[in-house]
Every structure is written in structure tokens, then in C-alpha cells.
Amino acid sequence: MSTNGRPRTTAEKIWDNHVVAERPGAPSLIYIDLHLCHEVTTPQAFSTLRARGLKVRRPDLTVATMDHSTPTTSRELPLLMDPAGSAQLQQLEDNCKEFGIRLYNLKSDKQGIVHVVGPELGMTQPGMTIVCGDSHTATHGAFGALAFGIGTSQVGHVLATQCLLQVPSKPYEIRVDGALRNGVTAKDIILAVIAKIGIGGGTECVFEYTGSAIRALSMEERMTICNMSIEGGARAGLVAPDDTTYQYMAGREFAPKGAGWDAALARWKQLPTDEGAVYAKQLILNADQLEPMITFGTNPGMGIPVSGKIPTPESMVDLQARADLEKALKYMDLQPGRPMAGHPINVVFVGSCTNSRISDLRAAAAIMKGRKVSPTVRMLVVPGSMQVRQQAVAEGLDKIFRDSGAEFREAGCSMCLAMNGDQLEPGEYSVSTSNRNFEGRQGKGGRTFLASPLTAAASAVTGVVTDARSL
């Protein structure tokens, strides 16, 4: 409850706890608890510090990892495939050494995608403000943190001051009640949400995911949902912490210990939204009615059930929506009114900060076990971190994938954004567990269908878009 007695949402509580200074009509100055960095958005920021003779204000609250330009076939530099990527990785190494920042480089057994590494090491904690020069920072909101992506100039600002100028966002409740049916996953929830509200539906808002279906999800599933909040236009997305959160965090490397844990737990239990708090917007979904989802177009809002048919432009009342659909279908070379199931594919990608955790790999392996990748398909399985990879190997998942004919790689972002040769050729179709299906996102001229690990693996087996429940 706020000092004036007004019930508050989780996001509002975190915001209020981090305001350093406020002035009417101007953005607020908020304190940042954790600053995550990678090689793509930091070079200019470090150059600015150097030029102005500034130090990193809180190197102890700043952590870097190599992920975007990281090769997934080899751990060696320089990269013959991508010299520019090699230069970025080397520059990050040099910058972190100069400014005293913790770095998980290619030789570290803790290296991985920044939004996988932070949670698995216990750096991501409830009640925190977390930023990164990466749009999918909302992932960390699964822990009841206020986490969002920032631009390169803001990266420099946070490095120098540990603060950020920011305008508060409106609270938007997305309530999902009921129970998910067999074969329907967290990825299907978020694709259904974005299909419902569109890619601009959450503009100027922070999503708070509530309801019995959300509470029933594991932390890794909550991360998948929060990860794609940005694709619905939101500034961030979060789930209030609960016992599932605390059990996941207990004992992790950077989680509080002993008396510190008890004190932290007491603080965290104050974070859930107060009864009577008012949201600016609300969306209610029934989990029982959701089906496995897949996108057909060139933004994440163009999604339908995998059993559905591609929409026709004539069905669109809004003229701009009709024009956008026509343009997307032309790029994707898809016929309106045709079923999505059965459409031939060329590549399957299981990975990215959305779906590269151990539970995602287990789900895909459950489909692949005893089966073969279609001879017309190339399948890449890319763990989100070296710790995920090690666990997958310990469980024998790597053998399942390799025996099926899939490629099991080192940790990194990989085909999510077409790095280091992990990309589509012009005209190829992929079923991808990543978060974006923009034109050329996975390779110039490539065409991406976003889906869950279950749908991706089932499609790898059959060579066409497939509902995993049919297997």
C-alpha cells in the first residue's frame, strides 16, 4: 500500500521504490539495480565514457556476457564466418577488463544469452529494476522485476550514473484463468495474447500477467511469456513473485543467503499487487480455449491456431490492416484461406532467449526421441547458456537430438537474428521458437513461422507445419 493509502500494482511498487528525483512535466530519474550488457549495444557507450573521462559508477551491479555475435559451432576467435562479430567480442573483452566489469566470455562455463544467464545465476531478483541494451529484457519480469530494454545512449548513461531518465508506464493486466490443454504451452499463451491485441496494444504500458493459468506455470514458462511482452508493444512485462519464484531462486549463486535470504523474502512478499489496485487496461483469456499457435505473417501479431486458416485481406475492416496483411502474405508467399498445417518448411530452430532453456529442450526432445528429422529439413538446437547445454548433455538430450539428425550447438543467440552463418537462405521457411518474424530477421529473404518447441519439433519430423498433438 502506498503512503497515501492507494492500492498499487507490483510495477507501481517497484517504480516508487526506485525514484531518485521527480520534476513535474519531466521524466523521472530512477535507480537501476542490475545492468546487463552484451557485445552489440555497448561499444559506443564505453567509447563515450572514455572520451569524457568517466568510470563505470557501479561495476559490481554491471554484468556482461557474449551472446549475439557468439559462434555456436566453435568457441574460437577470430570468427572466419563473421569478422565483424569477432571484433565486437574482442572489444567487449577489452572494455570489461578496462572498466572492471564481470564478463562471461567464450571460455566461461557460465556464458550464454544474457536473458538466460541472469536468472539461472540468481542475479535476477524480485523487486529489482533491470536494464539491458536489448529489447527482450522484459524476460526478467518473470521474477517480479521491472525490466526493460534501453538504447545505446542510455546504456552509457546507466554505466556512468547507475540511474536512468524514464517516464512511468500504465499498468495493464493480462489475466489467464483455467488450465492449459495437453500440447498447449506458455509460448502459445503469449502468441495468443499478441494476436488478440496486436503489436501496438501494450504501448506505454507494463503488462502484469495474472490468473490461475499463469500461477501454474514454471519460472521458465513465465520467462517465455514475459520475454515477448515487447512484441505486444509493452515497455515491460512481469509476474508478481510467489512460492514458485522463491523455490527457483533458492541456493543460486547470486541469490541472498542465510539471514540475507530471510530479509529479502520478507521484502519480496510485499510486492504482489494490492487488492483493489486499478489497472489502466485489462485482457482476460480462458486457458481452456487456447490451442497451439503459429504465426503466418511478418510480425508476431499475425498469429493463428496451428489448425487454423490464413486470414483473407477481405476479412479486414481496417484498410491499413488489410494493406499490411496483403504485404505480409506477398513476402511470405502464402495463399489466404489456406490451412497453415501441412505447409512445407526447410529449417527448424529451437533456441533464442524465448525458448532455449532446459525445459524447452526437454519438450523438443520428447517429440524427437525415436524419430528422425525429415530429410527435407535442417534442424538446429541451440541451448541458451553453457549451463543449459551441460544439463542437456547430462540428461542425454544431446544424443536424442543428434540421433534424430538435428544439430546440437554451443550456447548463443544463433539463428534468432541470423548470426555467424546460422541463417535462412532466400525463400526458405523456418519454424522458429524465437520471438520475431520480421522480413529478413533470420536471413535475407527468409520466412519465419514462430511457434513453441513442441510445434517446432513436430514440424521437423514431418517436414511440414504440424500440430504436435497429432504425434
Structure notes:
This protein is α/β, with parallel strands linked by helices. The protein folds into 3 domains: 10-166, Aconitase, domain 3 (2-Layer Sandwich); 170-289, Aconitase, Domain 2 (3-Layer(aba) Sandwich), CATH 3.40.1060; 294-470, Aconitase, domain 3 (2-Layer Sandwich), CATH 3.30.499.10. 31% of the residues lie in helices and 16% in strands. The strands form 5 sheets. A 5-stranded parallel β-sheet has the order 5-4-3-6-7, with helices on both faces. Strand 1 and strand 2 form a beta hairpin. Helix 2 crosses helix 5 (152-161), helix 12 crosses helix 14 (397-404) and helix 12 (358-368) runs parallel beside helix 15. The longest helix has 17 residues, at 83-99. It is globular, with a radius of gyration of 22 Å. The protein starts with 9 loop residues before the first helix and ends in a 9-residue tail after the last helix.
The CA-CA distance between the termini, in Å, is: 50 Å
Under the CATH scheme, the architecture of the largest domain is 2-Layer Sandwich
Q: What count of helical segments does DSSP give?
A: 15
Strand order of the largest sheet: 5-4-3-6-7
Indicate the radius of gyration in whole angstroms.
22 Å
Total domains: 3
The low-confidence runs, each spanning 5 or more residues with pLDDT under 50, are none
Report the sheet-strand fraction: 15-25%
Q: Main β-sheet, in a few words?
A: 5 strands, parallel
Look at the structure and give the mean pLDDT. Answer: 96
Tally of strands: 19
What form results from the Cα inertia axes? globular
